From TrEMBL:
Alphabetical UniProt keywords: Glyoxylate bypass, Magnesium, Metal-binding, NADP, Oxidoreductase, Tricarboxylic acid cycle
GO molecular function: isocitrate dehydrogenase (NADP+) activity; metal ion binding
Cofactor(s), by name: Mg(2+); Mn(2+)
Entry binding sites for D-threo-isocitrate: R146, R547
InterPro entries, per the entry: Isocitrate_DH_NADP_mono
Gene designation per UniProt: icd
UniProt source species: Marinomonas spartinae
Protein name per Swiss-Prot or TrEMBL: Isocitrate dehydrogenase [NADP]
Positions with a binding annotation for Mg(2+): D350, D548, D552
Binding site for substrate: S133, A134, V135, N136, P137, V138, L139, R140
Family: Belongs to the monomeric-type IDH family.
Binding site for NADP(+): K83, L84, P85, N86, I87, S88, N136, G584, S585, H589, R600, W601, D602, R649
Annotated site, Critical for catalysis, chain positions: K255, Y420
E.C. number(s) listed in UniProt: 1.1.1.42
PANTHER family named among the record's database cross-references: ISOCITRATE DEHYDROGENASE (NADP(+)), ISOCITRATE DEHYDROGENASE [NADP]
């Protein structure tokens, strides 16, 4: 007999949070019939800020630390978490959150940009924990299995999304550093024993500063690498000159959100090199008024507001003058004049490069039209795969969603493997000297000569996650009868360590009849692309960053968006996390809801994740009803796709809420029709009838609210009651659901 089981469903940010207000009541009502409870756990950016300062807030403003709760839960073999995409906050997003909360009377301290006192340092440290990719590494206590389910793939084949044509004469390309970057300086070791190493800076006078003590466990891989600030700035200048001479648009693609320490620094250099004339002329003034180029040009516009109007106009003119001397800069919003360099969180490489490739290799220009572009990604380790993809499209034309195969991914990410764990071991050098990794006996394990401004970082990957990742790769190859490729370079220091382990751990498995290969990145992507255009599937088994990049790149080509991916994290301790999609939180969708009360967010990722989550409870707890709920949910999802009841982009047509209604209709019909459990069928038959009888009325009620502003007030700190009102406007539907 089963006892009550719990699914922890996360409340996050932006579009997925809005969708939750409509969808969770449906999931909750259905799940109840299988003795399953869905508990909402708030891990939104606002909730994380509130939790960080809970001890300073009055009791009525405090809230449970949802992230800590779920983080602890990941150790429990019973854990069952449905994780929606959340904001990985850049500084401008954090400022906006603090402002919004303080307007509600929270009285949170301002973020100290240049902390001087101990108090300010402490405040900054608390905010630092909230910034960037602060949720995923805590919850992802397992490796990742991301794929396009068969129903989704078949829908995409029948209803292909638009794909920009590729021309052989396209001048678009990826540009990256040919030296002085992390790739060219990487060193890597594997420790045989548990030990604590020190990350030390040795000054020119011989003084030693311990930056960090790092406990390592036996079998762990530790890398260290350096990016030269001078070479980075020269690289930016050269790419700008080259783009200007060749009349091609310049476009920066980094991941300042996830690589929260290193990439804002890189982004800041791009801003100060691009607008060099402005920063040279007004640098001192900018320092005085607190401009932070790492927050983008937006920071200049923001901070100069404290200056007299004439001065502001002078600076704005100087910015405009820069555009005469520089190549055209890619735009995020050409109507509003927002460029790629405006804020660091607008262009995020995992999604932005596939969007460019899908769009014939073009980015948007000042004139609102698409143009060929030089995509600048300083760090060469992974940038090369985009050049390879661009070459492939130039030769073979755009991918065709109707005929193309699929590239699922098995990604290494457990226990903060690879780049996810690097935030606390990434340092900007304040002086020239040597950065080194030293063991307890004083032996130097790795070292780099560094200069002021360089970015030096160490990166950890534990052994247990690697072993589990190899197993997951082999398992997926076996279960789906698909070739699997481990993407590992032959001459990259980190990958040399990993290759040894992969070769060793592959021996633990029966590989009979499987096609398992190890290939360098460019060969691996070419191999996968050669197969994909012939309709063949290839599993990519990769490290963490390639996991991130490939699970947007291929889904965006295959399905139009990575939101439609099934994204499972089998946790090392036995629990499961089911992520919804592989993409972001679609801020643009919120704007549309605010303006026209239409939410175009597609909850397909949520439907898929919850079905797997039910299924898992069914298996673990021998809960037959949960298994039926899962099976019927999957069938209903397929029917929803077939009947084209996914959200449209246009106000007045079916949106997120309408698609949820159809899910409830089809799901209840499937449950009523199944014969495995007569009790369940009897329970859902009246609902199915009521929903079907009232279909037109409900659809009308849901459409009637659209076309005018929704009245949503909070952005980062949404009022759940208000959101529920906006997201559940059909009384007929709500009443029907309440009968369950
Ligand atoms: N796992 C996680 O928690 C992740 C979080 N993020 C966070 O998300 C934010 C935005 O990231 P960004 O990379 O710009 O991605 P977006 O969320 O803006 O997604 C890019 C585009 O993809 C389309 N899209 C994405 N999801 C859906 C969906 N469910 N339904 C329909 N269309 C969809 C939208 O296209 P259109 O506008 O044309 O409709 C959207 O504008 C950032 O704060 C980032 O930190 C990013 C990646 C993963
Ligand atoms: O954690 C993040 O900031 C982004 C995560 C992401 O893009 C992914 O997992 O695909
Ligand atoms: Mg991603």
């Amino acid at each position: 007999m089963s006892t009550k089981q719990t699914i922890y469903y996360t409340f996050t940010d932006e579009a997925p949070a809005l969708a939750t207000a409509s969808l969770l009541p449906i999931f909750g009502a259905f799940a109840k019939e299988a003795d399953i409870e869905l508990k909402l756990t708030d891990i939104s950016l606002a909730s994380r800020v509130i939790s960080a300062f809970a001890d300073r807030l009055p009791a009525d403003k405090q809230a449970e630390d949802g992230l800590k709760f779920l983080g602890d839960l990941t150790a429990d073999p019973e854990a069952n978490i449905v994780k929606l995409p959340n904001i990985s906050a850049s500084l401008p997003q954090l400022y906006a959150t603090i402002k919004e909360l303080n307007a509600e009377g929270y009285g949170l301290p301002e973020y100290p940009e240049n902390p001087q006192t101990d108090e300010e340092k402490e405040v900054q440290a608390r905010y630092a924990k909230v910034l960037g990719s602060a949720v995923n590494p805590v919850l992802r206590q397992g490796n990742s299995d991301r794929r396009a389910p068969a129903a989704v793939k078949s829908y995409a084949r029948k209803h292909p999304h638009s794909m920009g044509k590729w021309s052989k004469t396209s001048t678009s390309h990826a540009d990256y550093m040919r030296g002085g970057d992390f790739f060219s300086s990487e060193q890597s070791i594997t420790t045989d024993v548990d030990q604590t190493v020190r990350l030390e800076f040795v000054g020119q006078d011989g003084s030693v500063e311990v930056k960090k003590s790092l406990p390592l466990v036996a079998g762990e891989v530790l890398d260290s690498m350096n990016m030269s600030c001078k070479k980075l700035r020269v690289f930016f200048e050269e790419t700008l000159q080259d783009a200007k001479e060749n009349n091609i648009m310049w476009s920066l693609h980094v991941k300042a959100t996830m690589m929260k320490v290193s990439h804002p620094i890189v982004f800041g250099h791009a801003v100060t090199v691009f607008y060099k004339d402005v920063f040279e002329k007004y640098g001192e003034l900018f320092n005085e008024i607190g401009v932070n180029p790492r927050n983008g040009l937006g920071s200049v516009y923001d901070k100069i507001q404290s200056l007299p109007e004439a001065k502001q106009a002078e600076i704005k003119q100087a910015i405009q003058d820069v555009y005469n001397t520089r190549p055209e800069l890619a735009m995020v919003d050409s109507d509003k004049g927002i460029t790629n360099l405006h804020v660091p969180s607008d262009v995020i490489v995992d999604a932005s490069m596939p969007a460019m490739i899908r769009n014939s290799g073009k980015m948007w220009g000042r004139d609102g039209k698409a143009h060929d572009a030089k995509a600048v990604m300083p760090e060469s380790t992974y940038a090369r795969i985009y050049q390879e993809t661009i070459n492939f499209c130039k030769t073979n034309g755009a991918f065709d969603p109707v005929t193309m195969g699929t590239v699922p991914n098995v990604g290494l990410m457990a226990q903060k493997a690879e780049e996810y764990g690097s935030h606390d071991k990434t340092f900007e050098m304040t002086d020239d000297g040597v950065m080194r990794v030293v063991d307890a006996n004083g032996n130097v394990l790795m070292q780099h000569n560094v200069e002021k401004g360089d970015i030096w970082r160490a990166c950890q990957t534990k052994d247990a996650p690697i072993r589990d990742w190899v197993k997951l790769g082999v398992t997926r190859a076996r279960q789906s009868n698909t070739p699997a490729v481990f993407w590992l370079e032959e001459d990259r220091a980190h990958d040399i360590q990993l290759r040894k382990k992969v070769e060793l751990y592959l021996k633990d498995h029966d590989l009979e009849g499987l096609d398992i290969r190890i290939m360098p990145y460019n060969e691996a992507i070419r191999f996968s692309m050669e197969r994909i255009i012939r309709g063949k599937d290839t599993i990519s088994v990769t490290g963490n960053v390639l996991r991130d990049y490939l699970t947007d790149l291929f889904p965006i080509m295959e399905l139009g968006t990575s939101a439609k991916m099934l994204s499972i994290v089998p946790m090392l301790n036995g629990g499961g996390m089911y992520e919804t999609g592989a993409g972001g939180s679609a801020p643009k969708h919120v704007q549309q809801l605010v303006n026209e009360n239409h939410l175009r967010w597609d909850s397909l990722g949520e439907f898929l994740a919850v079905a797997v989550s039910f299924e898992e409870l069914g298996i673990k707890h021998n809960n037959a009803k949960a298994k039926i709920l899962a099976k019927c949910l999957d069938t209903a999802t397929g029917k929803l796709l077939d009947n084209n009841k996914s959200p449209s982009r246009k106000a007045g047509e079916i949106d997120n809420r309408g698609s949820h209604f159809y899910l409830a209709l089809y799901w209840s019909q499937e449950l009523a029709a199944q014969t495995e459990d007569a009790g369940l069928a009897a329970k859902f038959a009246p609902l199915a009838k009521q929903l079907a009888d009232n279909e037109d009325k409900i659809v009308e009620e849901l459409a009637a609210v659209q076309g005018k502003p929704s009245g949503l007030s909070g952005y980062y700190h949404m009022d759940l009651k208000e959101v529920a009102k906006i997201m559940r406007p059909s009384t007929t539907f709500n009443d029907a659901l309440a009968t369950l």
